[in-house]
Design brief:
- The protein is an alpha+beta fold.
- Among the domains are: about 5-45, no CATH class; about 60-90, no CATH class; about 125-155, no CATH class.
- The protein is about 40% helix and about 10% strand.
- It is built from three helices and three strands; from the N terminus they run ααβββα.
- The longest helix has 26 residues, at about 130-155.
- The termini are far apart.
Length: about 160
């Protein structure tokens, strides 16, 4: 039970330290808890990034060689003595991927020519209706359709 309480307190303190980093005036605060958390956070900010012993994190050497059976080997360790090899050094602060090629801009396409068809004007799109003659034609068409529906209903009733 005591360990759980300590873990909860530690989580709250770490969260408060992270949030105090959002307030640049936390170190000048009069609240001792905020000031202490800002101090702890500054310790973490100033701590050096650990490096593995014997390695430089900014460069990676890759050795390439072919063994006696003809197989290629790639390693960060040099090949056995007497084996011809090549080495490439890659830096972690340089991007080695190529940028994608820029698309070639073609001339702007000409809008397609309007095709003339033998569709009557009454088959033109219904919206928007701005022509009064078009409205009259639509009403006439609707009455014709209603007449057809009525005739069909009479035939079914007989």
């Amino acid at each position: 039970m005591m360990i759980r309480l300590l873990i909860i307190i530690l989580i709250v303190l770490v969260g408060a330290a992270a949030l105090s980093g959002l307030n640049p005036s936390a170190e000048q605060s009069t609240n001792p808890l905020i000031k202490g958390l800002a101090t702890v956070q500054s310790w973490f900010r100033e701590a050096p990034i650990p490096k593995l012993p014997g390695t430089d994190n900014s460069e990676t050497s890759v050795y390439k060689w072919r063994d006696s059976s003809g197989e290629w080997h790639f390693s960060n360790q040099p090949p056995p003595a007497g084996v011809a090899s090549s080495v490439k050094i890659y830096r972690s602060d340089i991007n080695i991927t190529q940028t994608p090629p820029t698309p070639v801009k073609n001339e702007p396409e000409q809008p397609p020519e309007k095709k003339t068809t033998n569709i009557p004007e009454t088959a033109a799109p219904l919206l928007p209706i701005t022509n009064p003659e078009r409205v009259k034609q639509l009403i006439k068409d609707a009455k014709n359709v209603q007449g057809l529906v009525d005739n069909r209903q009479q035939d079914l009733d007989q």
